Amino acid sequence: MENQKFIIGVEVGGGHISAALVTTAGDIVPDTVKYFRIDSGASADDVLKKWVLPIKSVMNKAKLEDILGISFAMPGAFDYKNGIALFQGNGKYDALYNLNITEEVSDRLSLNTPLPMRYINDATAFAIGACWKGEAQKHERSICFTLGTGIGSAFMKGGVPIVSDRNVPEHGCFWHLPFQEGIVDDYFSTRWFMQESETKYGVKVNGVKSLAAAARKHQHAQEIFARFGHNMGQLIAPWVKRFQPTCLCFGGNISQSADLFKRHLEEELNSHGVSVKITFSDQTEELALVGSTRLYEETMWEKVALELPTM
Q1: Does one domain contain both 272 and 292?
Q2: DSSP category for residue 28
Q3: Tell me: the pLDDT tens digits for 94-126?
Q4: Could you tell me the residue range of the domain that residue 157 belongs to?
Q5: Nearest to 274 by CA among 239, 306, 298, 300
Q6: What is the pLDDT of residues 141-182, one digit of tens each?
Q7: Residue 172: left (phi > 0), alpha (psi -120 to 50), or beta?
Q8: Residue 186 contacts by C-beta under 8 Å, 6 or more apart in sequence?
Q9: 104 and 167 housed in the same domain
Q10: CATH number reported for the structural domain that contains residue 184 in this entry
Q11: Within the chain, what is the greatest distance between any pair of CA atoms?
């Protein structure tokens, strides 16, 4: 690793944090991945102490002078340009509200010369990673999704997220758009599956994974995944026609049940005259972590930096 430069990539989840040493070429250095579970409802000091643990551990894997900085794939709400946490009202990391994460993490790392830190939305980071090192890397245009507690998304062209363009939604993502009787995030999330199961069939489930297991045996669970697939096709078909991607790339926990909804998604897209390659990733966290490190490629940083507040 002589003369090699690195970035510490960090992926923040609702109940975990992972970090790894990543080369400027986007390769995770073997045996540097660190993963910690976190109580996201804990005090600010407890959360930040836990966040710093994997960063410190990874930092010890290289000479400090060879580390360009730290990159965060961070969920919202967050001021990505200034590094300010805006989490509030969703029960996760509320104690960090209005804190400057760069300052807080730097203080706890206790370095004589603080490392630069850059931030990007976790779904956008996944999209960048998928286009750089994952399933979408051979596609000039793609739309990438993360499906879990909510729906994350990004429109990608040449590996760069497109935010301001007449052929993409406002802010370059879907979650806030009107859909049926609410907004998109109401229909493409874990809570939608749980609500559908309870309100329509009287069956309580504790998540999509358990519902997927039930779908192997029970018709009602299969019907829920079928509706999800058709809803997804209904949502994205008009935007596929406008943006003209050659790939749709899905990540996140819900995408692990793709066998239960992919056919229905394809049927709905076909009914709208849309045909596009559909891929599913089982490396969402790793690709988000790697994707965040591309912020230290200066040409990429120049392209995304001005758009960060809306990502």
Answers
A1: no
A2: B
A3: 999 999 999 999 999 988 888 999 999 999 999
A4: 135-282
A5: 239
A6: 999 999 988 899 999 999 999 998 999 999 899 999 999 999
A7: left
A8: 179, 192
A9: no
A10: 3.30.420.40
A11: 61
